Amino acid sequence: MAAGKPDASRSSRLRTFLDSDLVYDFLHSPVALISALVLVAIAMSAALAPLLSPQNPYDLTQLYLDKAELPPIWTADGEAPYLLGTDVQGRDIFSAILYGSRISLMIGFAGVIMAAAIGITVGLIAGYIGGWIDNLLMRVGDLVLSIPTLLVAILVSAIFRHLLPMSLRDAFTPVILIISISITSWVQYARLVRASAMVEARKEYVLAARVLRVSSARIMLSHILPNVMTPVLVTATLNLGLAILAEATLSFLGVGMPATQPSLGTLIRIGNQYFFSGSWWVVLFPALQLSLIILAVNLLGDWLRDALNPKLH
To answer: CA-CA distance, 40 to 35, in Å (whole number)?
Structure first.
C-alpha cells in the first residue's frame, strides 16, 4: 500500500490540474491552442532537423556552388530537393531554417531561464532582507536599465569575443549571446519578485517560520518563492519572444552567430545582402519563420497573462 501512495498522489494532482480553470481556458481558447500548436510544431521540427532536412547546412562538404541561388521548388527554375531554394553558398534554405530555428529557440529559452534565475535570486534577497542590500541591488538594476538593452548586449558580446582566442569564438558564441541577453533582462524579474517578496515576508506564515528559527534561505525558497512564481511565469513567456528577437538582432548586426552556424538572424542578414538582386527567398522565408515564432509566443503569453489574472475571473 505504501508504494502505491505516491502514484495515487501524483494521479490526484494530475487530475486536479486537468480539471483546473487554466486548462479549461486553454482548451476553449482558439488563439492559445493554435499558438501552442505552432510553437510545438516549430520546436519539434527544429529538434528533428537532422531527420527532416535534406542537407546539413553546417557541413561545408554538402554545399555546392553550382546549386547556388536556386529559387523555390514551385517556380520554373526550382530544383528538388531544395524546397525553399538555396542561398549564394548553395545552402538549402529549408534546412537552414530548421537548424537556425533550433539555435534561436535554444538561445532564447536559455537566455530567459538565466535571466529569470538571476532576477528571482536578486528579487528574493532584496525583498526579504531589505535595508541597504535592497537599495544596492535595486540601484544596480536601475543602472542596467539606464543603458539601452541592445548597447549592453553588444558591449558584453564584444568584451567576451575580445577575451576569447580566435579558435574558440565561434564555439562559445551561443554562450556569449545567452549571457548578453540575460544580463540585460534580469531586472524585470527582480522587481516583480521583490515586490511580491516584500508582501509575503510580512504574512503570518513567514513570521511563524521565523519564530521557529527556520533559516532565511529555506523561508525564501520553500515558502516565499512558490507564491511569487505566477507573475514570473507570465513575464518569462512574454520575454521569450523578446529574447529570440534580441538574438536575431545581434546576429543581424554581425555580433551574433557566425555564417557557418547561422541562426534565423544570421540568415536574414545574409539574405538581406542579395534581396535586391532578385534572390528574395533567401531573406523572406527566414524572416517569416522568425515572425511566426515571435507572434505565437506573444499570443500565448497574452493568453497566459489574462488566464492567471484573478481580476478577469
So the answer is: 9
Give the span between the Cα atoms of 212 and 219, in whole angstroms. Answer: 11
Structural domain boundaries, residue 107? 28-312
Residues 208-236 as b or e (16 or more Cβ within 10 Å = b): ebeeeeeeeeebbeebbbeebebbbebbb
Q: pLDDT, tens digit, for every residue of 246-262? A: 888 888 887 778 877 88
State phi, psi for 11 to the nearest 5 degrees: -65, -40
Is 135 part of a structural domain of the chain?
yes
Which segments of the chain have a pLDDT < 70? 1-20, 309-313
Identify whether 195 is part of a domain.
yes
8 A C-beta contact, residue 298 and residue 240: no
**Cell output for 162:** 575580445
Say whether the peptide bond before residue 174 is cis (omega within 30 degrees of 0). no
Residues shown for the chain: 313
User: Does residue 10 form part of some domain?
Assistant: no
Residue 253, burial from CB neighbour count under 10 angstroms (0-12, 13-18, 19+): middle
Question: What's the CATH number where 53 sits?
Answer: 1.10.3720.10
The answer to whether residues 75 and 233 touch, using CB atoms and an 8 Å cutoff, is no
User: What's CA 293's distance to the chain center, in Å?
Assistant: 10
At 1 the pLDDT is 44
Q: State the average pLDDT for the chain.
A: 83
Contact 107, 243 (CB under 8 A): yes
Question: 164-189, pLDDT tens digit by residue?
Answer: 777 777 778 888 888 888 888 899 89
Q: Is residue 138 part of a domain?
A: yes
Q: Is the pTM of this model over 0.70?
A: yes
CA dihedral 73, 77, 81, 83 (to 10 degrees): -30
Please report the pLDDT score of residue 150 as a whole number. 78
* Number of domains present in the structure of the chain: 1
